[in-house]
């Protein structure tokens, strides 16, 4: 009996996830027995139920959660923030009402999450109850919040099926979720449109930075006074830029004479070291090339004139907030592992890309300078960016407030069901 590599890999992952879940359940039982045998004299924080909990699997999502944590702090509402990054920027905040804790990495984090006690748990992490991360009987309500202004169907298969609710930023996301629910015959989730907290903050920072720049500069410079900064920011995986074009794209960019900034996806350093390391060695930092690994991408986006990427969500950070053009790559996107493969309609991301920039292909990669110059100087992409902004970024400036309102109202609803009081 033949099983293709993709299916075999998925079955193997499911098997590991099942074994992992059994291990976590065993550990949970041992802890509970220890607690009972000691007559409750051991640390009972393990069994404490938190009202509001946030889980972040990586520090790079702090831009999503910081505005929410700040809003809870402002309102004086207690919140637990759990992270799998020891150096999460959350630990630098001087909060009084928001408690930040390091969960541990990998299985250690999932071990606690799978036995978590919370009324509400908010996370950007997909695949709840699919692989290692299982729904805990101690959590009443799981809520997903996206970390990009794009399709939720570009998550791995069943990415958000087992969440109770999803906070969205555009109507197209709701339509996709409802279509998947109908096809799979699963219960409908609660869907509430709240906007995008990280884009709100990025826009606020940009506005303030531009004000500071204007007030501090006494001399104006024309575009001829500096070179164009081109940001190459690929995603990772078999459909991403380096997997498709390799170092050829860097050679083509060097021929433009422009300053090239390369910012690989953080996951590339972990999962694609064999691909990425030789490229970084071949093209070290110089006056022509700059490798960027900043946790906060604000500065590198602000000083770049154009972005080259694939299907990475950074495309929308760049075009919607900074209102600058993009070049996106042509790749044979294999949607087999993703939720998108269940739907006949093309993902919103791929429909909107031609409206906000030019496509890089095998036939035009050697004339990439012409593409860059055209995108920077052609005003027709302005209207495309405006349309994309309207479709994917609801309630600009209100994301944190609306998210906090939703969480607090949902908690009141959940506790009212059992005769409790709201927050």
Protein model, in words:
The protein is built from 15 helices and 13 strands. It has two domains: 41-196 and 397-417, 3-Deoxy-D-manno-octulosonic-acid transferase, N-terminal domain (Rossmann fold), CATH 3.40.50.11720; 224-392, Glycogen Phosphorylase B (Rossmann fold). The strands form two sheets. It has a seven-stranded parallel β-sheet with strand order 3-2-1-4-5-6-7. Strands 10-9-8-11-12-13 form a six-stranded parallel β-sheet, sandwiched between helices. 43% of the residues lie in helices and 14% in strands. It has 423 residues and is α/β, with parallel strands linked by helices. The longest helix is centred in the first third of the chain and has 33 residues, at 5-37.
Compose a concise summary of this entry.
By secondary structure, the chain is of the alpha/beta class.
Count of runs of 4 or more consecutive helical residues = 15
CATH topology of the largest domain: Rossmann fold
CATH homologous superfamily placement of the largest domain: 3-Deoxy-D-manno-octulosonic-acid transferase, N-terminal domain
Mean pLDDT across residues: 87
Distance between the termini: 56 Å
Overall shape: it is globular
Oligomer: single chain
Strand order of the largest sheet: 3-2-1-4-5-6-7
Helix and strand composition category: alpha/beta
CATH C-level class of the largest domain: Alpha Beta
Q: What Rg, in angstroms, do the CA atoms define?
A: 23 Å
Q: Tell me the β content.
A: 5-15%
**Low-confidence parts, pLDDT < 50 over ≥5 residues?**
1-10, 37-43, 219-223
Please tally the β strands and state the result: 13
Count of folded domains:
2
- Order of secondary-structure elements: HEHEEHEEEHEHEHHEHHEHEHEHEHHH
| Largest sheet descriptor | 7 strands, parallel
CATH architectural label of the largest domain? 3-Layer(aba) Sandwich
């Amino acid at each position: 009996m033949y099983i293709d590599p993709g299916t075999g890999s998925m079955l193997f992952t499911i098997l590991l996830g099942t074994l992992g879940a059994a291990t976590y359940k065993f550990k949970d039982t041992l802890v509970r027995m220890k607690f009972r045998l000691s007559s409750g004299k051991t640390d009972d924080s393990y069994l404490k139920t938190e009202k509001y909990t946030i889980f972040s699997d990586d520090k790079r999502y702090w831009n999503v959660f910081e505005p929410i944590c700040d809003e809870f702090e402002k309102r004086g509402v207690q919140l637990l923030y759990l992270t799998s990054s020891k150096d999460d920027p959350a630990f630098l905040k001087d909060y009084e009402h928001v408690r930040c804790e390091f969960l541990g990495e990998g299985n250690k984090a999932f071990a606690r999450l799978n036995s978590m006690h919370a009324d509400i748990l908010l996370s950007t992490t997909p695949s709840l109850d699919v692989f290692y991360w299982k729904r805990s009987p101690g959590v009443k309500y799981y809520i997903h919040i996206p970390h990009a202004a794009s399709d939720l169907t570009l998550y791995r298969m069943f990415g958000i099926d087992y969440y109770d609710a999803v906070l969205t930023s555009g109507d197209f996301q709701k339509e996709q979720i409802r279509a998947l629910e109908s096809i799979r015959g699963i219960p409908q989730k609660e869907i509430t449109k709240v906007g995008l907290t990280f884009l709100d903050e990025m826009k606020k920072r940009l506005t303030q930075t531009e004000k500071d720049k204007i007030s501090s500069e006494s001399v104006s410079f024309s575009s001829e006074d500096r070179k164009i900064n081109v940001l190459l920011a690929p995603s990772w995986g078999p459909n991403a830029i380096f997997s498709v074009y390799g170092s050829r794209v860097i050679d083509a960019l060097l021929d433009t004479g422009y300053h090239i900034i390369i910012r690989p996806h953080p996951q590339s350093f972990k999962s694609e070291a064999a691909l990425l390391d030789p490229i970084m060695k071949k093209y070290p930092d110089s006056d022509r090339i700059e490798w960027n690994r900043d946790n906060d991408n604000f500065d590198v986006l602000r000083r770049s004139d154009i972005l080259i990427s694939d299907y990475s969500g950074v495309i929308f950070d760049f075009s919607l907030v900074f209102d600058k053009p993009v070049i996106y790559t042509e790749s044979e996107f294999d949607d087999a592992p993703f939720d998108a493969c269940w739907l006949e309609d093309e993902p919103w991301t791929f429909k909107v890309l031609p409206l906000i920039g030019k496509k890089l292909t095998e036939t035009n990669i050697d004339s990439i300078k012409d593409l860059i110059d055209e995108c920077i100087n052609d005003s027709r992409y302005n209207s495309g960016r405006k349309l994309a902004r309207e479709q994917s970024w609801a309630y600009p400036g209100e994301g944190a407030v609306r998210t906090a309102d939703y969480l607090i109202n949902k908690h009141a609803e959940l506790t009212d069901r059992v005769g409790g009081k709201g927050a």
